[in-house]
Amino acid sequence: MKSPERNHRLFSLFFLSLATILLRLPAQGAVIIVDDPLNVGDVLIGPCGVPGAMGPTGVNDDFTNRSINTGIANVPPGGVTTTAGTIVFRNTVQNTGAADDVFVISAPVVPAGFTIEISINNADTYSILEPTGRGVSLPLAYRAAGIVLVRVTAPAGLRVLAGFDVVVRATSTATVTAANETIDRLYTGFVRLDKSTAVVNSSGNSTVAGPGAEIEFAITYSNVSTAAGVGNSLLTAYNLVINENGNATPNNWGQTTEHIIGASDTQGGTIIGDRDGSTSLTDMITTLEPGQSGVFKFKRRVR
Predict the structure, then answer these.
(1) Which CATH number describes the domain made up of 191-302?
(2) CATH fold match for the domains 43-187 and 191-302
(3) Contacts of 293 (CB under 8 A, 6+ apart)
(4) Distance CA 158, CA 154 (A)
């Protein structure tokens, strides 16, 4: 039989062990709170006003399309730009995480020879972004959004009618694995014109335009920019004007042919100059969406 003193010792050890376990519980609970998933950061970046836009494959290839208008005049398809050009893109960054956060804006993909600058203060100042650089920090409150300006300068010597992608990334500093990307795509012109002629209604060789033969002139115009996805910022041509003057070098058909009434446009453009004695025609197309094309045609009779 155990003595009362020994029983007292056993009970004392039991309560001491229980107290030790209870004292440990608050510390374990604190670790769980630190790892609470509600504290994670998240972010979206996309075209201005649409940070959640979708590209062809998802939220990491949405895009903003813009075109330079310098160095492309009178350069035929296949040629290259004659001067440098600069475009300013506007992107929206949205804090989609669970708390205030600071986001690092970087440009991990930049075409060779391009200069990328970013402003987070509405163009008051710009900072150069290098593909291997850390980037620029943008603080945003919980659920807030901000505008970043991305100034892209393209060098001369680029192929015309082509798109060049600059990838802009926003990364959370609260959760460094949380990032989102968008594409700022610079085009070196986006409306292509292709001209062709064909001899029609000829009694002899169809490649020789003899007296009385009819020549059909066709100008195919197309918007070469992309449009896939939802919510992206697209390039639409407005009030496109195509002018054909038979007396302007290198043309000479104004003096050697007569106009045949019946000019047409597959996009319903407004044609001026489709009348007897005309030596110049103008076609005006109100809008030309990305991927759209049309054909402007007119005929002349050889004198």
Answers:
(1) 2.60.40
(2) yes
(3) 220, 221, 222, 223
(4) 8
Q: Tell me the pTM.
A: 0.83
Which of 224, 247, 249 is closest to 300 using CA atoms?
247
How confident is the prediction for the chain on average, in pLDDT? 89
Q: What is the dihedral of CA 30, 32, 33, 39, to 10 degrees?
A: 150
Domain ranges for the chain, please list them.
Answer: 1-35, 43-187, 191-302
User: 93-111 pLDDT, tens per residue?
Assistant: 999 999 999 999 999 999 9
Domain 43-187 class? mainly beta
